[in-house]
Give the backbone structure.
Amino acid sequence: VPALDSLDASGRTVLVRADLNVPLHEGEVTDDLRLEASLPTLRTLLDQGARVVLMSHLGRPKGEPSEELRLGPVAERLRDLLGESVTAARDIVGDDARAKVAACEPGQVVLLENLRFDPGETKNDPEFADRLAAFGDAYVNDAFGAAHRAHASVVGVPDRVQPAVAGELMAAELRTLQGLLEDPPGPFIAILGGAKVSDKIGVIENLLDAVDRLLIGGAMCYTFLAAQGHDMAGSKVETDQLDTCRELLARADRAGTELRLPVDVVAAAEFASDADHRTVPVSEIPEGMMGLDIGPETVASYASTIADAQTLLWNGPMGVFEWDAFAAGTEGIARSVAACTGFTVIGGGDSAAAVRQLGLAEQVSHVSTGGGASLEFLEGIDLPGVAALRKGAA
Ligand code: 3PG
């Protein structure tokens, strides 16, 4: 895909799609990862004297404006981080946005209102895309986290505005994740967690041939363990995925890839933060109890495997890490990943949040800003936002 350095931005008004979908609490941004990651592209453009019309979604407002999901607080935080003028428009393509874009000087940023306040964004409505496109004469997509969405600002605008190039964050994400799929230095270890087997089948299938070992945790491990014949008692088992798990286990066998499952779990009497709980071997979960985290023996064994990795990918928490009693598995894995001297990648979402909460992000080679996007990329899917940039260059 065409890169940012192929664009001479001076004198242009550049439409920049970023992923500024950050967590907010009482009107304040609580995690800057995505904002910080968006700065290099913005600085490059502003230094060249471009006017920047910045676009993002925030949350999932379903085509209706909502006070809590306005981008105002994000603009404020961005202004602090960037140290340049960032003005927030009160609408997306309406009078306020038009006036602010018209008044924008070289070296300044206008942030349009939350794109998803208009139903045209997720529908990739041509009229909405036309109106966005009318704001600029160049397009930069730096929203890796939204590249898997075929939305107006992601695919409709680059269809209409040329040149259309990838921003620095987009390029770095694609380079790093592509590197994982192209025979990286071994041993290559992947650790996958998260709630549902069904969400991870594609990625497991695509990684089975690439990795040397696949370590499984999170709620999805209970379906795998059940597929192996263990009695999971009250644990969450996706019964419609048992055959898929058996198939994946057999495929791993054929590929010579070691697919490892927990040997012990923290079992709880109910799904609650203060539930009675105890650590038990996977074959001895007491009747009526459910696994909510991987156990210490599993953490120790996964940790020693992780220590040997030359290349490592981690996606998905090992347990219900929002609750202290069931956070040790995720924390233990986060610490092992941080301590690993190989090339370490965290595939966005909850696992990225976990390493950041523990203050370990600096010790990881690459923390992806995309949750769903990085998973789809690792499944081998051609992300629509990337395909749109390639198409424009062809
Ligand atoms: C994310 O948080 O993964 C991205 O911002 C995409 O958000 P979405 O899943 O609501 O499209």
Notes: Residues 183-378 form a domain with the Rossmann fold fold (CATH 3.40.50.1260). The first helix runs from residue 33 to 47. The chain has a mean pLDDT of 96.
